[in-house]
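Record type: monomer structure entry
Structure origin: computed from sequence
Chain ID: A
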Amino acid sequence: MPSNENLKDSTFQNVDLSGSRFDDINMSETIFRNVSLKECKIENANLTNLRIEDALLDGMTIEGVLVSDMLCAFRAAKRD
């Protein structure tokens, strides 16, 4: 297993990394486009300023709460 590799500014296109494990990884300022993160788990992560746009969020949870429910509550509060 490779470790201490510097792949900064690399481009990965049409790559299958399913089943992979990433530990102690810096992915700051990375763009994910047309990716499947289905059934993934993110633990102990710094998500400061993370943006998720135009995404299918069915079943996605944060701290056990469905994101779709959070968005509904947010939109309802915004209308009031």
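Annotation 1: The mean pLDDT is 93.
Annotation 2: The radius of gyration is 16 Å.
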